[in-house]
Amino acid sequence: MKQKEGVIKPKTKRAKRFLDNRAPKLTENVKNVMIMKGGNTSMTVTQALKDIYALKKPSAVLYKKKNITRPFEDSSSLEFFSKKTDSSLFLFGSHNKKRPNNLIFGRLFDFHVLDMIELGIEKYNSLSAIKNSKCPEGTKPMLVFAGEAFDHDDDHKRLKSLLTDFFRGPVVPSVRLAGLEHVLHFTALEGKIYMRSYRSLLKKSGCRTPRIELEEIGPSFDFVLRRTHLASDDLYKTAHRQPKALKPKKKKNISHDTFGTKFGRLHMQKQDLAKLQTRKMKGLRKRRGPAAAAEGETSLKTAKVEVE
Predict the structure, then answer these.
(1) What's the topology of domain 30-170+177-234?
(2) For a FRET experiment, which of 9, 132, 190, 261 has its CA 20 to 30 Å from that of 268?
(3) Domain ranges in the chain?
């Protein structure tokens, strides 16, 4: 590829396909996640990164080498790797005396850090520690958030949005019932965030609707909220802006009530009631033939007598 006046022109078809894949689209590609560890990590952090990578495959990249960087102080390294791998989400793990077993969840907009939230691991059970059958790779999870903090506290609201963006997976038009087998449950209680991973089992219930049981498959985390770096309201609003082509066109004279019922309004022209077609009855029909003519003459004679 050669660059001329700030515009990259591809020389080969492979380079052209690469640039077309990176170009802006109305419907963007699946968001990739880059998972990396800092200069100093613990066994807990390393294993936690591997387990989250297992949940996010195949739309994730795991860096095995150490990256000596501090995202809250300098995010240029993250932005460089984001542009290199076309990733809009990242997970950074580190460990030190002041903040042990540290995980930083973050996302980027236009290859610049939008927001990131630091969580500390207080208790952790790995995937291998829980001896149950696991979900297949690439299974789209169902996300459940419990706790009043996710609805009222600003930091927890942004954390809920970030975790939803991080774990939701690809957007699909439809889902079959048997494919709803992975559940990620997040609970905010007493200043902590509990993350649990379950596999839903469909059991016989004696009727058409199956009975559902949840079996924990791991990993499980007990997090504590630490530092946050949140985007301003204007930048956050800009990042959520959608193209006009994706916005649904408003249809005239159609409305919906609170229950989702669709109502339509019809505009009709003014009707002439004199020309309105009424119901036909036998007594109102016009008679034909000699009987009708004789009846007409009789009516005329009666009218003349009354006038005289």
Answers:
(1) Rossmann fold (3.40.50)
(2) 261
(3) 30-170+177-234
